[in-house]
Backbone:
């Protein structure tokens, strides 16, 4: 019975047993790699300040400041104490109940400030939930008044 090809038979002895086609392919690959890599400079490392662009850092600063302004605008509806509370605590402090907290899901554990930042920087789904959470927190007093019958 002939010997079946197992793992040992499939191994390529890295010596001179490569075929001409294999050698040609390797040479072509090395040539393409040489063409794609930068010459004379080596690879660029992270944090390398050789090509530091002052305009880019100024743009980053402007974007960060614009983001901070938007977050601050969202936080204007809340007093200083509430901004650093978790959404759960903020709802309960304003008189909301467990129903509103339950609507937030895992966002209830985030601070109001984190929710405001997420509403500006998150994905579309995160923005939607963060905005919903902020609205629920703002309306918690209304829910309290409505339950008491004065709304």
Residues:
């Amino acid at each position: 019975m002939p010997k079946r090809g197992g793992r040992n038979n499939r191994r390529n002895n890295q010596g001179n047993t490569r075929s001409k086609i294999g050698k040609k392919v390797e040479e072509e690959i090395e040539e393409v790699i040489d063409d794609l890599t930068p010459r004379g400079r080596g690879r660029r490392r992270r944090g390398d300040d050789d090509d530091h662009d002052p305009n880019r850092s100024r743009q980053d600063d402007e974007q960060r400041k614009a983001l901070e302004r938007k977050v601050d605008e969202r936080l204007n509806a809340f007093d200083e104490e509430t901004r650093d509370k978790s959404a759960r605590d903020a709802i309960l402090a304003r008189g909301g109940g467990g129903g509103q907290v339950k609507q937030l899901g895992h966002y209830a554990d985030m601070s109001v400030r984190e929710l405001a930042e997420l509403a500006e920087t998150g994905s579309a789904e995160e923005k939607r939930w963060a905005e919903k959470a902020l609205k629920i927190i703002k309306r918690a007093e209304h829910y309290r008044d409505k339950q008491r019958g004065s709304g």
Summary: The helical segments are 7-10, 20-36, 54-75, 80-83, 87-93, 98-104, 112-121, 124-148. The two ends are 92 Å apart (CA to CA).
